[in-house]
Specification:
Blueprint lengths: L4 H25 L25 H11 L6 H7 L5 H13 L3 E4 L2 E4 L1 H17 L8 H21 L6 H8 L7 H25 L5 H11 L6 H7 L7 H14 L2 E4 L2 E4 L1 H20 L6 H23 L1
Antiparallel strand pairs: 1-2, 3-4
Helix pairs in contact: 1-8, 1-13, 2-7, 3-4, 6-8, 6-13, 7-8, 8-12, 9-11, 10-11
Length: about 325
């Protein structure tokens, strides 16, 4: 497997497979009367569930910053595609539930909020305690390789370049099984990829929302302001704001309009390729922490773990 976007996507799919296989193993091996009960949460936890623009993800961000307060601006350092108005509304919802306290523009987790998010994130520690899809030695090696990669990234780049990774590691679980650590490691990969991608496209002089508009036009997934709104309504931007982004991209020469639709120009396609290459180069520069032989072994172990989990789920 080549060190490109495909390998990164593999780590993100692996996270879901580990979690599903672990939950299946727990359900099949733990007597029903000994299983940890799933906590009942208020309905607001279902708002935009699965998106960055959700109460759940905002709670995770509050936890990553804890005990520092979180503001809309600091949230959007990573959630660059989210409209500030929507981010503010989510924080206010969380405060209304008693999970955060607002002072000026800053929101801090309350004791109740901290207990809530810890319950959500730490429940898997007990559930996955006896889940060993590979040997203990192999799982420990995967964790060690990963830790070395992330530490190399942090040691060799400034704070701004590793912003997302640093905060993601703030919620790194402690004293848990290797498999539980690996689930979080996949989240660290997501954070580090965000760091690298933001470094790559901001070097082109555009913000996150404008870059996302370009990506959807370039991929022919949404080629008008209305289509961008319909496809990405969960981001919180208006049709007129999407149109402003398209106008900016036209002025840059990255897209052009033909009739009612927008399409990438040759310049735009070249910029897109430059950004993706730069993202991969920065992302995998952290793998220099491992020797060539260790990198091969690391990928082999990741693939082996993936195959075992898939096999468990197919049974």
């Amino acid at each position: 497997m080549q060190k490109n976007a495909e390998l990164y996507d593999f780590t993100q799919n692996l996270q879901g497979l580990i979690f599903q296989a672990g939950m299946k193993h727990y359900a099949e091996t733990t007597p029903a009367d000994q299983q940890v009960e799933t906590p009942e949460l208020p309905p607001i936890m279902n708002i935009r569930r699965g998106y960055a623009e959700s109460v759940g993800w905002m709670m995770v961000q509050l936890y990553e910053f804890h005990p520092e307060p979180l503001t809309v601006n600091t949230f959007r350092v990573r959630a660059v595609y989210s409209a500030p108005r929507l981010s503010q509304a989510l924080l206010e919802l969380i405060a209304s539930e008693g999970w955060a306290d607002r002072k000026g523009e800053a929101y801090s987790l309350t004791g109740q909020g901290l207990d809530t998010i810890k319950t959500l994130l730490n429940r898997r520690s007990e559930q996955f305690h006896n889940f060993c899809p590979l040997s203990a030695e192999a799982l420990d090696k995967l964790v060690t390789y990963s830790d070395r990669i992330f530490q190399h990234a942090i040691d060799n780049h400034d704070e701004q370049t590793t912003w997302c990774l640093r905060y993601s590691q703030n919620r790194k679980p402690k004293n848990v099984s290797s498999i539980a650590s690996l689930i979080h490691i996949c989240s660290d990969y997501n954070a580090w990829r965000d760091d690298c991608h933001m470094q790559a496209y901001t070097a082109q002089g555009v913000d996150g929302m404008t870059w996302e508009a370009f990506t959807f036009v370039n991929n022919k997934e949404a080629r008008t302001a209305q289509a961008l709104f319909d496809t990405l309504s969960y981001r919180g931007w208006t049709v007129s704001e999407w149109q402003t982004a398209l106008d900016t991209l036209c002025n840059l020469g990255w897209i052009s309009q033909a009739g009612d639709l927008y399409a990438s120009t040759e310049l735009g396609k070249s910029v897109q390729e430059t950004v993706e290459t730069r993202t991969d180069d920065l992302f995998y520069s952290a793998w220099d922490a491992l020797s060539d032989e260790e990198q091969v072994d690391y990928i082999h172990l990741l693939k082996e773990l993936n195959e075992v989990c898939m096999g468990m789920l197919s049974e």
